[in-house]
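Practice set, problem 2.
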Amino acid sequence: MIEKKLQINSEGYSIRCRFFAGDHARGAREFEHVVIMTHGFGSSKDTAGTTSFAEHLLSKYKDWAVIAFDWPCHGEDARKKLTVEECLTYLTIVTEYAQKTLGAKALYNYSTSFGGYLTLRYLIEVGNPFRKIALRCPGVNMYESMSNHIDAVGLKALEKGKEIQVGFERKMKIDHTFLDSLKAFDVRQHEYFDFADQMIILHGTRDEMIPIACTREFAENNVIEFIPVEGANHPFQNPQHMALAIHTIVEFFGKP
């Protein structure tokens, strides 16, 4: 497998990416099928799960490529303050790069948690460039999930119009407009019937961040195939759970 890091420079942004292709594609400039991977809040493109997915996919489908990128304020990204609008702009820029520079005729989306929320929001606010979409533990209750992990002092500061620091290994700034944006766009208040046939949702039964009941209800309301993974937590830390998720998604993407 070929892996390289690249930067997409567009509209004043510099988006840090990991690009994967099969060994046979060395020197190739265009790829008919490209999967765009997006990560969850506080994570990055540089995870073992990203590498494992690319390895599995490219061992099975020879003419495909994978591109994973850091959301604003995550991983190697240079930005300091997180906004939903810039996240959606990043997804647009990466999508256009896959189409115009990599020559993708078919795009696929594999997104997790916060990335899943952003993908669902993108479908409604921007449009659907993807042939198939696989979501793992998507943040269908993103506002509540985020609010629940900000302490009372932080929430009070936001109410006063101040910025606070959030995150895990890397801290980033948010203000009340970020939470207001999450609250204003609740994916559960939108219909996804038009995308249902091209979408699957996987969710761990022991997810401590996004209750599986919320996601199951969302999937049922929109007639989206829902796959519970017994015993899996939010990040699918158990290698067997992650392997099952990756296998399921790779097979789904490969179906006509």
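Problem 2, part (b): a different protein.
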Amino acid sequence: MVPKRKLEEKDIHPLLKLIDRQNLPQHIAIIMDGNGRWAKSRGLKRIEGHKAGIEGVRAAVEASSELGIKFLTLYAFSVENWKRPQSEVRSLFELLDRYLDKEFKKIEENKIRFKAMGRLHDLPSKTKKHLSVVEEKTRDYNGLTLTLALSYGGRTEICDAVNKILDEEEKGKYKEKITDEKFREFLYCPHLPDPDLLIRTSGEYRLSNFMLWQIAYTEIIILDTLWPDFRKEHFYEAVLDYQKRERRYGGITE
């Protein structure tokens, strides 16, 4: 997390100085991939890769705060991840609980608004309570909005949204035609803007069922770096790459 003291010139990363502060992505989403391969390459258990991945989370949050990014969303646990061995799943949520405990003071100091999205009712009861407490305590903070996608799937979110609409229609509460903006109201986090930039680590060229509705016009950057090795310079390089691109949203340049 970003320290409360003002950064001195000697502390500022050289890449940070190259970034145009007038052309920043408002919302950056990250598919944090490569923990298992990182651990395997070192002869370690998979959970050790997840533990090492916490440094990547810290780097992304610090870099976002330093740049003034408004929204950061991290793909932490997919609906498909429930298929993994129960011992690994249990360890992952224990790791998340420890992270929330350890980092909460820094979250408060930096006025980070914390949120979670996905099928949260499927999470362990202790984790659900933990997430709810942190979200409630930070709900009025105006710094970075940090969202963790947990028990999340893009297709699942779309199906859940459709079922919400059908429920409303059955109750006679919804009789409007569906538009993009109306459909957005039924997503897990309807007020979360679409990501401007999606970063995926580990060199894999796929979306892995992440925010399929929201990333229609998102710029995508693939890094070969495994997530535990992700640091602020990787974040800055991705933003610099983003700033070289021209976003036309289906239009043309004059």
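Answer key, part (b): The two ends are 42 Å apart (CA to CA). The CA atoms of residues 114 and 146 lie 5 Å apart.
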